[in-house]
Design a protein that fits this description.
By secondary structure, this protein is mostly helical. Helices cover 76% and strands 0% of the residues. Helix 4 runs antiparallel to helix 5, helix 7 runs antiparallel to helix 8 and helix 8 runs antiparallel to helix 9. This is Beta-barrel assembly machine subunit BamD. It holds the Pfam family YfiO. Keywords: Cell outer membrane, Coiled coil, Membrane, Signal, TPR repeat.
C-alpha cells in the first residue's frame, strides 16, 4: 500500500511538471525567484514570460528585471544586451536611468585591460558620458564620473601599450605619434612626468631607428649599384633613379635623427628639472648622461579589482 501511494505521488509530481504554465504564472515565479536571489531561475522564468502575452507595463517591468537578473548573476555580456534592448524599446521608462547606469557598469566588467581590444572600454566611456549629460544631479553622478575616468585611463594606457610595442622594435617615429596623441587627448588621466619622459625618450633615441633604416637603405643601395652594370638600358635607368631616391632617404633619416635628438634632449631636460625626485626624472638624467635606457614601461591597469569593485552596483 505504501509503495502504491509513493508511485502515485511521484506520477502526480511528474504530471504537474508537464502541465504548461501560464504566462502570468511564469511572470510571478520570475519575480519570486528575484526576491530569493535565484538568478538562474529568474532568467529562465522571465525569458519564458516575455514570450507570452503580457500587458505593456508588465513587459517593460519584465524586460528590466531580466537584465538585472543577468547583471546580478555576473553574466555581464548578456546583461549588456538586455539593457541595450530595454533602452531601445523603452527610452522614456522610469527604469531607463538605472538601465543606462548598469549598462555602463556591465561594459566596465567586460573590459580585459589596456592590452586588449578596447570596444567595451569605448562603449563604457560613451555610456557614462551620456548618463552624466542626461542625469547630472543623480546620486550616482560621482560614481559615473569615476567610472568614466577609469575608461579614459584604460584608453590612454592602450595607446601607451602600442607605443611601447613600437619602442621595443625601435620604431620611435611611430611611438612618438602615439605619445603625442596621449599628451593631446588624455593628459587629465596620465602622470605628466611619465608621459613626458616616454615622449622625450622616443625623440632622443630616434637615432637608433635612423641607424637601422640607413643600414637597410645602404644594403639596398649596393644592390641597385650592381644593376648599373646590366646590359639592359631600361634596368640601368631604373637603378639610377632608385639610387637617387635611396640617397635622399638616407639624408632624410640623418636629418630626422639630428632634429629628434635635439627635441628629445629638451624634453628630457625639462622632465629632469621639473620632476627631480620622480623615477622618470631620474631616468631622464641618466639618459642625458649617456645611459641607454630602452626598457618598455609596464602599462597601468586600473581594473585590477580591489574589494570595492567586487561589490555589485545597486539601484
Amino acid at each position: 500500500m505504501k509503495n502504491w501511494m509513493f508511485f502515485l505521488a511521484l506520477a502526480l509530481a511528474f504530471s504537474c511538471e508537464r502541465i504548461p504554465q501560464t504566462t502570468e504564472g511564469l511572470y510571478q515565479k520570475g519575480f519570486e525567484a528575484l526576491k530569493e536571489e535565484d538568478w538562474g531561475k529568474a532568467t529562465n522564468y522571465l525569458e519564458k514570460a516575455l514570450e507570452g502575452e503580457l500587458s505593456p507595463k508588465e513587459k517593460e517591468r519584465t524586460k528590466f528585471a531580466l537584465a538585472n537578473a543577468y547583471f546580478n548573476d555576473g553574466n555581464f555580456e548578456e546583461a549588456a544586451i538586455q539593457y541595450e534592448e530595454f533602452l531601445e524599446l523603452y527610452p522614456a521608462s522610469p527604469f531607463a536611468k538605472d538601465a543606462l547606469f548598469r549598462l555602463g557598469v556591465s561594459y566596465l566588467n567586460l573590459i580585459k585591460g589596456p592590452e586588449w581590444d578596447q570596444t567595451f572600454t569605448e562603449k563604457a566611456y560613451q555610456i557614462f558620458e551620456e548618463f552624466l549629460k542626461r542625469y547630472p544631479t543623480d546620486g550616482r553622478a560621482s560614481k559615473a564620473k569615476e567610472y568614466r575616468k577609469i575608461a579614459r585611463k584604460i584608453l590612454a594606457e592602450h595607446e601607451l601599450y602600442i607605443a611601447g610595442t613600437y619602442d621595443m622594435v625601435h620604431k620611435f617615429t611611430a611611438s612618438i605619434r602615439r605619445y603625442e596623441r596621449v599628451l593631446r587627448e588624455y593628459s587629465d588621466v596620465e602622470p605628466m612626468d611619465r608621459l613626458k619622459y616616454l615622449l622625450g625618450r622616443a625623440y632622443y633615441f630616434t637615432s637608433i631607428q635612423a641607424e637601422e633604416e640607413i643600414g637597410r637603405l645602404r644594403r639596398q643601395l649596393e644592390k641597385e649599384k650592381e644593376r648599373l652594370n646590366s646590359d639592359n638600358p631600361e634596368e640601368r635607368r631604373v637603378a639610377k633613379s632608385r639610387i637617387e631616391l635611396i640617397g635622399k632617404d638616407i639624408e632624410s633619416w640623418k636629418r630626422i635623427a639630428e632634429e629628434n635628438r635635439k627635441v628629445g634632449e629638451k624634453i628630457l631636460s625639462e622632465v629632469a628639472k621639473k620632476y627631480p625626485n620622480s623615477p622618470y626624472g631620474v631616468k631622464a638624467r641618466r639618459i642625458l648622461l649617456g645611459e641607454r635606457i630602452l626598457n618598455v614601461e609596464p602599462v597601468i591597469n586600473p581594473l585590477k579589482r580591489s574589494i570595492w569593485w567586487k561589490i555589485k552596483e545597486t539601484l
